[in-house]
Structures are given as C-alpha cells and as structure tokens.
Amino acid sequence: MFYGWKISALCLGGNFMLQGSALYGMNAFMEPLCDLHGWTRVGLNMSLGVAAFMGQLAMPVAAAVSTRYSLRMLMTVGAVAGGLATWAMGLAEDIRLFTLCMVLLWVASQVCGGVVANALMSNWFSHFRGIAFGLANSGTSLAGMVLPFLSLVLIRHFDMQTAYAILGGATLLLAPLSWVLVRRSPQMLHLHPDGRQHDPRPPKGVPRAVSLAALIRRPAAWWIGIAFGLALMVGSGVLSQLKPRFTDMGADAYPAMILAGLAALFGTLAKYFWGWVCDRATPIMAARALMLCGLGSMCFLLLPPSLASMAAFGLTFGSCVGGLWVVLPAVVAYYFGSPNFLAVYKFVAIFILIRSLGFPIMGISYDICGSYALSDIFFGVSFAVALALTFCLREDRAVERQAHRHGRHVHRH
Description:
Layout: H1 3-24, H2 26-37, H3 41-66, H4 71-89, H5 95-108, H6 114-124, H7 129-157, H8 160-172, H9 174-181, H10 212-216, H11 219-239, H12 242-248, H13 253-280, H14 283-298, H15 307-321, H16 324-336, H17 341-351, H18 358-369, H19 373-390, H20 399-412
C-alpha cells in the first residue's frame, strides 16, 4: 500500500474525532445540556457560533503556521488539545467556560485534520488527489453517523460527563499515531506523489508562488471563498441540529437520531463520489454540480412533515454537503496549482468565516418562529448565490489545466 493512504486514513481519524465532535456532537448533547444546566438553545447556538467563528479564524493561521512548522508536530499537538478540550466540556457548568472549551476544540480541529490534513493530501497525491481529499475529509461525515448515536447511548447508560470523557480519551490516542506516521511530503521517504516512479507534476509551466496582493486582485479567489463560505454556512447550521429538527417535526428521539446518522452516512459515501467527480471531470464542474444539488435538496423542506420527507431531505442534503470539504481544496489546488495550495487556502479560509453565521441564524429563527423555517429560506437563497458564483470560474484559467496542456505539448515535441 502506498504510504500516502496511511496518512489519509490518519487524517480521516483526526477529522472524525475533532471536526465530528465539534460539529455533530451537539445533536446528542444539546437537549441534555439544556436540561442539566438550564441553558437555552439560543445560548448554545451562540456558543457554537463563537466557537465556529474562532475555528474558522484559525484556518488562515493554521495554513500560515503549516508552511513554517512540522506538520507532524501540529497534528500531534492538535490531538492533545482537542482531547483535553472535549473532556473539559463535560465538566464545565458555566456556559462561558463551556464556550471556551468548544473554541479550543474547533481550533484544534484545524491542525489535527482540517487545514493540515488537506495540506498533506495536496503534497502526497496528484492524479488521485480528489479521492484522497474525499477519504481524509470523510471522517467528518462518518462522525456524524457514529458519534451522535454513540454519545446518546453513553449519556443514557452513564451520564453526560462520562460521554465527554470517553470521547476526549479516544481523541488523545491520535497523538502518538500522528507523531509516528505523519511526514510532510513523499520525498521525505524517497517516494513520489501517488506512489509513482517519478513526480507526475509538470516541472515547468506552473507558477511556484502567489502573493497576497496578487490574490486580492484575483476575483476567482473571492468567488471561491464566498461560494464555499455560504455553502458551508448552510451545511454546518443544518447538520449540527438535524436530530433536534426531526424531533420538532414529530419524530421520536431514536428514529430522529437514526435519520441524522443516515444523512451523515450518505455524506460520508458522497465524499468519495465527489472526489471521483473531481478526478474524472474537473473540480470546477464538480463545484457547480454540488451547489445545484444542494439547492435542490432544500426543496424537500417544502413537503409536509413525515418520516419519508425527513429521510428524503436528510439523505439528499447530507450527500451534497458531504462533498463541500472535498471539492473546496480540490478547486483551490486545481485552479491555482498544488505548490500554491497553502498560500491560496489561507486567503480563501478568511471567507469560510461566513460558516460560523449558520449557528446563530438557526438559533434566532427558532427563537422567533419556534422552528427553523426562517433560516431555511435564508439558506436556500445562500445556496443559489453560491451556485451563481461557481459559474464565474473559467476552466481555461485553471493553472493545472494549463500545466497539463503544457506537459502534453512538450511530450509531443
């Protein structure tokens, strides 16, 4: 087996435990937290919003740090910080302390998984990069299928503090694995991307550096950032509270959790599918198809509440949103070139801060209407804007498309 797949599996584990706990954990913990401490959904959504904002703010910082420091060290430190933060969340009795722990968890998720994982996949893969991104990022959706249900069982058989302690302990196990397995690039082990006998990337024709000033003047960087920021805002807001939404629509606790888990399962499988689309077509075409499918899935919310309509929405929405974290890094690497991945990803990550707005929007909608109807209208419009922005990207200006054409031209001559 090519060593890069082992690193991809480790990145899957990091996204599973940290990003999964940060995003999907509230499906199981929101109602028990409110009952135990007297907190409100609005208050917890505000905490989620603050934590998500700080986590997204950490994305450009993590990208900048990743260019200067060991990725092995960052993954290890992120696992330790995330495990301790998860354990401490179960001990916090003040919502401000709980929010602080959640902020640490979201920040840690960018270095044990998140940005560092995407940087590793960009370094270790070329032809199979889309599938590698899909495998590494599938941990987040896989966690949505497993962690909320597991947490619900732990809460009911033990208590909430024990559930958080078990999740934190499992996260800490990633630290020694990260230290042993992670290497920045295949060249450190005398290997090449994809396990080939030579470096598949064209040695000439690809710009090796892009400055911040140049990115600010490139509309494409803005379109990519805003489009995926809006789409991730919708996905994060809806998926973080899918089980409470289904409960409000009339489903019992376990059927609602099973539907939320199935949505995450389809999101996990969809990551491989969207990665395959990126490799077989182009990441830009995949982005357009993804946004269109996401917008279409919102239409199922217009149906009368029933288990069938809940399942239709959850499965289609999960399948679409599951591909966002796969297609985003693929588009960045494809449009600007793999050598520029971290520099551009750092700039694009600024716009991903929009993602954090999804949580307070959900809370405000529930507080005003007693449901998520108002937020659903806003989210539908957001998906439509994201779709329109993807059509502003031109295939003929993608760096890797130009590089591959250059490589074929050199080969013919």
